[in-house]
Amino acid sequence: MPRSGLLLLAALLALLAASPARADGTGQVSLRILAINDFHGNLKPPPGGIRIKDSDDPTKNRIVPAGGAEQMATLVKQLREGHKNTIFVAAGDLIGASPLLSAMFHDEPTIESLSMMRLALSSVGNHEFDEGKDELLRMQNGGCHPTDGCRGPHPFPGAKFHYLAASTIVKDTGKTVFPPYEIESFDGIPVAFIGLTLKGTAGIISPASSAGLEFHDEAATVNALVPELKARGVEAIVVLIHEGGYPTGGINDCPGISGPIVDIVGKLDRAVDLVISGHTHQAYVCTSDGRLVTSGDKYGTLVTAIDVTLDLATRDVVSAKADNVVVRTSLAKDSEQTALIDAYDKVARPIAERRAGEITETLSRTPNASGESALGDVVADAQLAATSDAATGGAVIALTNPGGIRTDLIRRPDGSVTYADVFASQPFRNQLVTLTLTGAQLKATLEQQWADPARPRVLQVSKGFTYAFDASKAAGARIDASSLKLNGTAIDPALSYRITVNNYLALGGDGFTALKDGTALQFGKYDDEALFAYVKVSSPVAPPPQDRIIATTH
Questions:
Q1: Are 46 and 93 found together in one domain?
Q2: For the chain, which terminal residue's Cβ has fewer other Cβ atoms within 10 angstroms, N or C?
Q3: Could you give the maximum distance between any two Cα atoms of the chain, in Å?
Q4: What is the DSSP letter of 161?
Q5: pTM for the whole thing?
Q6: DSSP 481
């Protein structure tokens, strides 16, 4: 063959080798997306594991130990194997409301851990804003904490993955706090990943943390980006959204789903192919409005493996299917993760292992029919005890928000409770604030428990304070004013009472704006410190009778 012919043949062979088409000639490209959500700094396996269907009896559920960064890293590596095109993404709340091992270092170890797992992209969840915008920017960019400095075993480098925040706008600039999307290429096919948090974020984070920010409508934000993406040649679009739903069924099916995600997905432009969701701490694999919608539980108990087929001709998604894979604690531990955790644990352990006292049985955060929980009662009692002296506030009642109580206080065989246990239940380190309210203002505060009637937030109350409510009544009339009593004496609408709340509530958090009318504010210790001290002096602590809040119907 002439030299020119050989050169031509070589060029053709090189072109064929470079083609992204599969060997079977289908003209399709396979992409595996691995996803997590709501990790919340659980570097070690969370107590409680995950509830899944019993393989021996599908009509029953069983709890299996699950989670842990060491095991997750191993599973992520296993799920990558045999797949040429992979990307690891998240749907927000990777940090915030974290166990002590992460929270003590402002979640730096969690950011490092996920970076080591080659996480590529994450939407911003509401808990990413727990310490404000500037602190979240530090999570992305690195550097020492502005107040606490460098506490960890080495300088904090910042995230190697990229946060995306399409719907979060800085008011002063009109720009998003992070890029709205990122385009990744797989065998020459561009795929856009849009990241955003829920539009209601400002109502569930501290008002101080949301200052200067706007949170726009989720679907409208995505739809406005579609023409821009198409102009850039993108046909395949994946949404990473920190909002979710409430399914029925197991971790890998979806006979029914309700909640905000259903409405959002129904409003999305048809160009959106896949939605990876979070926020509600649920596990599901659903088809909603003809699109695959997934969520991977919470605390790192699951990794969602999503297999997507892309068409070379249209550059669009042809099909997508998903499998929620349990991060079993029996998996081998990744040595790199173990070294990272050990380095931070060495610094944290002396504080974490401080003994508080004992409990007689597990103190559950699960509410009864009236919204009252055993742990909620104990937390409120602890806050009252910390502020009842004249010098510490002179409080007669304490109120705390249920969202601030994150885990049960689980009884060990010896009944012992450590600071790490206490911190896991009260991880936000909110400062206690004692303020003065009239009886009428106290009733107005309690009426705001139904600011969102679909999701009432029943405040936990301290011992000695009791009341009744009828949720079926009209707004502003649900609390029976005559039932409001303190140690058996009726609350007088005109008299003043010293009430302890946390600083989140004092600023109007969770919609309790009536508390902003409180006067003579006195700041005290942090909520975790109050609970630690209470367990220490009250041991052994038993679940109180849950009879402070009474639900009535007429």
A1: yes
A2: C
A3: 107
A4: S
A5: 0.85
A6: G
